[in-house]
Structures are given as C-alpha cells and as structure tokens.
Amino acid sequence: MNNDFLKEKKVHGDAVFPLSIYSLTYHRTETIIDCHWHDEWEFIILTEGRAVFQIDTECFALEKGQAIFVGSGQIHTGLAQAETCAFSAIVFHPDLLGSSTLDAVQYKFLDPLMQKKFQPPAHITDTSPWGRKIIEQLQEIMDNYERKSPTYELVTKGALYLILAALIAGSSASNPSVPPDNYKTEKLKQVIHYIQQNYDQKITIRDLAGIVHMSEGYFYRFFRSLTRQTPVEYINYYRVQKAAGLLKSGDQKIAEIALDLGFDNFSYFSALFKKYMNQTPWEYRTNLRKESQT
User: Fold this and answer.
1) Structural domain boundaries enclosing 61
2) Which residues is 214 bridged to in the sheet?
3) For position 86, which CATH number holds?
4) Residues contacting residue 106 through CB under 8 Å, at least 6 positions apart
5) End-to-end CA distance of the chain, in Å?
C-alpha cells in the first residue's frame, strides 16, 4: 500500500520558507478538520469555543487558548463542540529548523523527533510553565504574521526553536504521550485511500471492511473510534468537499456534479451540501461569483 495518496497535497509556504498560517471560524457543531495527514509539523491553537481533536488514536478536548501538536505522518481530525468555534493552524516542514550540517540541535533534538524516537505531549495548556511558553510563542508567531513584520521569518524561526525546547521540557516534566498505534493507523490509511480513489463510485461498508479484513460491525466501530465519523458520514463529507471545489473552479451543471460524485439523488446531494456548507450548491456558486466581482 502506497500511503502517499493519502497525504494532504497542499503546499505550505514556499521552498525558502516552508510555513503557512491558517485561521478559520465555524458557526455550528461540525467537523472542522477533515481526517488527513501530511509530512509537516502542525500547531493548532483554539481561539474561540470548544473542540475535540483526534491524533491517530488519541482524543483531546480543547478549550479556548489551548493547543495541540501534530507530528509528521499523524492522522488528525477535529470536531467543533460549540456553536462558534475558531482556530489557527501553523503548518511548517521540519526542514525549516534543520541544518545543512550535522550540528547538536539536529542530532540531539530534531532527528529523534522526526524519527519518532520519542513522543512529545500533544495537548498544550497554560497550566504548566512549558505549556504557557509554547502558547505565548505561538501567539507571537501569529501576531508577527498579521503585522507582516519585516523580520517575520527571523522571529518565527526563533520562536519555533523556543517552542521545540519547551516541548522537550514538557516531555521530561510529564508522562510522554503513548506512542501511536501504528497498526490501527495504517489500517485507517488503507481505508481512506480507497475512499479517496473511489468516492465517485458506490462504496459499501462491506467493501471497506473487506479491505482491512474486518467484520462489518467491527469495522464500523473501528472507523468511528478513529475518525469520530461513521464511514458514510466521512464519504459524504469528502464528496461535498469535492463538489465545492468543482463549483468553485468551473461552470459544470450542479446536477452533473452530483452524478459525477456518486449521488444518484439530487435532493439528497443538495441537502447534504447545505448540511456541511450552510448553503445550497446554487447559493454557494452564486455567492462565489458575487465575491469574485467585488
């Protein structure tokens, strides 16, 4: 199984500074981060509301002002627990902190973290000195990003080194997180890979359970425990996201988009789209066109 197909394809930053910051707000209890993984490291800080994030097989309930750390290759997803929920994500490649020569920082700290030789704490709060330092530095990075400071790259890189030092201090001061269950994670990646390659076809629970050699009942519980969605909910959500992309990028008829994505009932497709996007497909396309004209 080539799990490269499961990776998020988005490029974060550029070759000389591989880092991006995203800020999103949701106004209903829903999935706020789709189940995915990438090579980059990521810090997510909740700026409003409450949410539950899952990293591999562990769940973390976050309140406003708390953060999580997602390592390279870790499957993660998020679900809002309040009517208004907002977060910022700092996504960067570990190479940003690396060195062209083998120095002490590289072999003592970066390499072990990248090679998963130790698991730093994922849930970051202000109840500990190291947690407060990380949250302060994350805020510093976001503030400089908003101000477009001329020394933004320098300040950001320095802050990330301080954050890494605090993470390592947190690993020493508290019990490290339990290493991820790689068996379950790899099984989930196989299933997501199949869905992402066949989302426009009819997919049954039996199909998905067969991929990982599980009974339908056990697979259903397995999938939901790792993604916080049922298989059908995940498939429908993924199809709706694909539909949103097609509505944004072309003039294909909405009914044709629904059929191409595996929906044989237009009313059902429209209802699902409104559930996840808070507007009908027609309203979504109309609003996008209005925005492009302003």
Assistant:
1) 3-173
2) none
3) 2.60.120.280
4) 98, 99
5) 46
Single-letter residue type at 137: Q
Q: What is the spatial distance between Cα 241 and Cα 86, in angstroms, rounded to a whole number?
A: 19
The one-letter amino acid at 181: D
Task: Count Cβ atoms within 10 A of the Cβ of residue 233 and give its class: 0-12 exposed, 13-18 middle, 19 or more buried.
Answer: middle
Q: Give the mean pLDDT per block of 10 residues along the chain (294 residues).
A: 46 81 84 85 96 87 96 88 91 88 82 81 93 96 90 94 92 54 81 91 94 93 88 91 87 92 92 89 88 73
Task: Pull the structure tokens for residue 32.
Answer: 């706020």
Q: Pick the last residue of a domain from 173, 197, 229.
A: 173
The closest alpha carbon to 185, from 36, 42, 41, belongs to 36
Specify whether 20 is located in the same domain as 151: yes
String of DSSP letters for 156-173: HHHHHHHHHHHHHHHHHH
Distance CA 269, CA 260 (A): 11
Q: Are residues 34 and 129 in the same domain?
A: yes
Q: Phi and psi dihedrals of 5, rounded to 5? A: -65, -20
